[in-house]
Design brief:
The protein is of the alpha/beta class and about 300 residues long. It has ten helices and 13 strands. The chain has a five-stranded mixed barrel with strand order 8-11-9-10-12. It has a two-stranded antiparallel sheet with strand order 2-3. It binds 1-O-phosphono-alpha-D-glucopyranose. The site of 1-O-phosphono-alpha-D-glucopyranose (G1P) has 12 residues, from strand 11.
Length: about 300
């Protein structure tokens, strides 16, 4: 089988971040730090660590801080160099060299599917990774989520979505996949419902915002009908694609997923990141224990 190396990722980052107002009043939600790293940097690092070299970010108004973050900053580098802050200098240089990043604007918030279509001309006839900005995965000591998707794609050579078991009561927050139960680590998806009610959900395997899509999915996006709100959604393209009898697969996530689009999820990711830093870990645990006691 002719295996095509996956080197490109599309990151739709045009959303307003209304759930995080006022923090997102004048800065993109993707720049909110998980401890001290902007969430978007964690997503880019995950892609780069899995071999992605080219990233297309679909941005909107007021997202310039993202471009600045990944750009070279001569002035800052000069200041750090003059002050002998070599570690920081190496860090900011690394960020600006991480990947080739192209930016395309989504003129109106017409949905994640529309955002992907805005990036269409930057990808050829090839499979591409799609990463939503809210889903951060930690898999200590194991493969990162993008690598898990790419490895799965290399086996099935079809679109793959990342799945995770979610509590039944939460199915209406996710795309829910019906899967063929077998022992295979990569599941064949037989049905897909976007945000069903508990009664309608075919399973509790929720889709998280990490995918590998193929030109066939782009084709489905081009013809899928916008919803009542006028938005073109990737989830609808998956449903159309499956209805055409085509093969879609799911990889069950190895690792812990944090939904940083949700306030509690964001807090959990931040605490986890802080606890993984050797220099502050012990003091932070001590603080947390006392803090918890004072609330009991
Ligand atoms: C989107 C997708 C949904 C998926 C979710 C994961 O929904 O449409 O299928 O389960 O991301 O975060 P959103 O949360 O953007 O409304």
């Amino acid at each position: 089988m002719n295996k095509q190396k996956i080197t490109k990722a599309i990151l739709p980052v045009a959303g307003f971040g209304t759930r995080f107002l006022p923090a997102t009043r004048a800065q993109p939600k993707e720049m909110l730090p998980i401890f001290d790293i902007p969430a978007i940097q964690l997503i880019v690092e995950e892609a780069v660590d899995a071999g992605i070299t080219d990233i297309i970010m679909v941005t909107g108004r007021d997202k310039r801080a993202i471009e600045d973050h990944f750009d070279k900053n001569f002035e800052l580098e000069q200041v750090l160099s003059d002050k002998g802050k070599l570690e920081e200098l190496a860090m900011v240089r690394r960020i600006s060299k991480m990947a080739n990043i192209a930016y395309v604007r989504q003129p109106k918030p017409l949905g994640d599917g529309h955002a992907i279509l805005c990036a269409k001309n930057f990808v050829g006839d090839e499979p591409v990774v799609v990463l939503f900005g809210d889903d951060i995965v930690k898999n200590k000591g194991g493969k990162n989520a993008v690598q898990q998707l790419i490895d799965s794609y290399n086996v099935v050579q079809k679109p793959v979505v990342m799945l995770q078991e979610v509590p039944r009561k939460d199915v209406s927050k996710y795309g829910i996949a019906d899967i063929l139960s077998s022992d295979n680590a990569i599941k064949k998806i037989t049905g897909f419902v976007e945000k069903p009610s508990v009664d309608e959900a075919p399973s509790n395997f929720g889709v998280i915002g990490k995918y590998i899509i193929t030109p066939e999915i782009i084709k489905a996006l081009e013809t899928t009908k916008p919803g009542k709100d006028g938005e073109i959604r990737l989830a609808n393209a998956f449903m159309d694609y499956l209805a055409d009898g085509k093969d879609l697969f799911g990889k069950i996530l190895e690792g812990v997923r944090y939904d940083t689009g949700d306030k509690l999820g964001f807090l959990k990711a931040t605490v986890n990141e802080a606890l993984s830093r050797e220099d502050i870990k012990d003091d932070f645990i001590h603080f947390l224990k006392n803090e918890i006691k004072s609330f009991e």
